[in-house]
Write a structure and sequence with these properties.
The strands form 3 sheets. Strands 7-8-11-12-13-14-15 form a 7-stranded mixed β-sheet. Strands 2-1-3-4-5-6 form a 6-stranded mixed β-sheet, with helices on both faces. The chain is an alpha/beta fold and 436 residues long. It contains 16 helices and 15 strands.
Length: 436
């Protein structure tokens, strides 16, 4: 079967840019499409191509000029949902005069959080959650002309009727650990995948899926069914080796080191391997505070930067997010990282109800602590999350193009221009750190 996998173009719109001429806010994804590379890795014996429209906006049109795929898979986050629909519509229209149209399958974060959004006549199937195994099962079912409605985690579109599907109960088998990502499919774009403020060219590696915590704003539990599933150490080292010539590796797990015992063994194996890669990983503050010895070990293994979801500097707000952490814990984690010699990348959430005092307090906090790269984003209720259920009646902007985490989709306490001006000032701090 001829299969084309598509990474949508840079999507999303910016209210502060459109309405106030504030141009320091819009965020652009610059990493490789690992989710699609992973899917492709489990599609041996099929002719698979990958169009990364973020790296090469013309690649889809160029491909379709000479090829007609049997199946097309598209993935994306919430702000890319409309772009996905546009791509699907365009492909169906392009081949509308032919007897057999390409089968279009959509997966990813938004498809897992809000699958009904893609229940349209332009899309044929929706993959919910971790899709490496279920996508392959769907391909096999279609190729062999077998029923697909019994494949867990796969929904056949049925508009205008609601979707009907069997939820998937995830196990280690679902990540198909033995099949590595097809990094070769994006070889031509490797120089375009960078992590500003941390290093140059970067390669993505997954060591685990999911998170056992349930922060109200997070969509990750919808991807993994609330489970934490680890790759084997052998798979992690294999994938790092496959990224030959790439010095900087980004572990793209939502919660790296979620399994402490496995993380210790992994670090030892990496040290013994002599790979000498530089590693960036997302680690919870409480994991760092409880296990400083683990961070010291990973420093020897190549860990150079840690991304921490500080989210807030107010414990009351952290409690409302169900973060199960505290500002004291966050500060302690920073001190431990600095003592060990690891850079701190801090994610902060700006709530629409922020006052000038809230902005000034956060600005002072960032300036007075050793945060190497502060990354502020605006609290956004993504459909399918507990936060969305809490705030859905307050949402004023329903166009998903604005769900970029740099727009307030519920009313702000400050007038909008003042809110975005203060937020822009925080973003300027980020850009200044990147330049330094």
């Amino acid at each position: 079967m001829q299969i084309l996998l598509i990474n949508p173009p840079n999507s999303g719109r910016s209210i502060p840019e459109e309405e106030f001429g504030i141009d320091s806010i819009k965020m652009i994804f610059r990493g490789e499409p690992l989710a699609l590379e992973v899917l492709a890795g489990n599609l041996e014996n099929h002719d698979v191509a990958l169009a990364d429209l973020k790296a090469d906006p013309d690649s889809l049109a160029q491909y379709l000029e000479s090829q007609k795929p049997d199946m097309i898979g598209i993935t994306g986050v919430t702000c890319e949902a409309n772009a996905i629909l546009d791509i699907a519509k365009g492909i169906k229209k392009r081949f509308s005069g032919e007897k057999k149209l390409p089968i279009i399958v959509v997966g990813g974060h938004h498809a897992s959080c809000d699958p009904e959004y893609f229940n349209t006549r332009f899309i044929d199937y929706i993959i919910l959650g971790i899709g490496k195994k279920s996508f392959r099962q769907l391909v096999d079912g279609i190729e062999k002309n077998k029923p697909t409605h019994l494949i867990p985690g796969v929904a056949k579109t049925n508009s205008p009727s609601p979707l009907s599907f069997i939820p998937r109960t995830y196990t280690n088998d679902d990540i198909v650990d033995t099949k590595p990502p097809r990094y070769d499919l994006v070889k031509a774009h490797r120089d375009k995948y960078v992590m500003s403020g941390v290093g140059g060219k970067i390669g993505f590696v997954s060591t685990a899926f999911g998170c056992t915590h349930r922060c109200f704003f997070c969509s990750i539990p919808n991807i993994s069914g609330g489970k934490y599933i680890s790759h084997s150490i052998d798979a992690g080292i294999r994938d790092m080796k496959l990224l030959d010539g790439i010095e900087l590796i980004r572990f793209v797990d939502a919660n790296t080191f979620g399994d402490i015992a496995l993380a210790e063994k992994f670090a030892v194996r990496l040290i013994e391997s002599g790979l000498n890669k530089k590693i960036v990983a997302d680690v919870r503050a409480d994991t760092i505070v409880k296990n400083p010895h683990l961070i010291e070990l990973w420093k020897q293994a190549g860990l150079v930067s840690v991304v921490i979801g500080f989210e807030e500097i107010d414990d009351g707000r952290l409690q409302k997010f169900n973060k199960k952490s505290s500002n004291t814990c966050n500060i302690t984690a920073m001190k431990i990282l600095k003592e060990i010699g690891i850079k701190v990348i801090g994610d902060f959430i700006i709530s629409p109800d922020y006052t000038i005092e809230n902005f000034e307090n956060l600005t002072q906090f960032i300036a007075s602590h050793t945060i190497d790269l502060p990354v502020p984003s605006i609290l956004t209720p993504i459909p399918g999350t507990p936060l969305y259920q809490q705030l859905k009646d307050q949402i004023k902007i329903h166009n998903l193009d604005y769900y970029t985490f740099s727009n307030a989709v519920i009313p702000t306490k400050l007038d909008t221009k003042t809110f975005y001006t203060y937020y822009s000032d925080l973003m300027k701090m980020l850009h200044q750190h990147i330049k330094n």
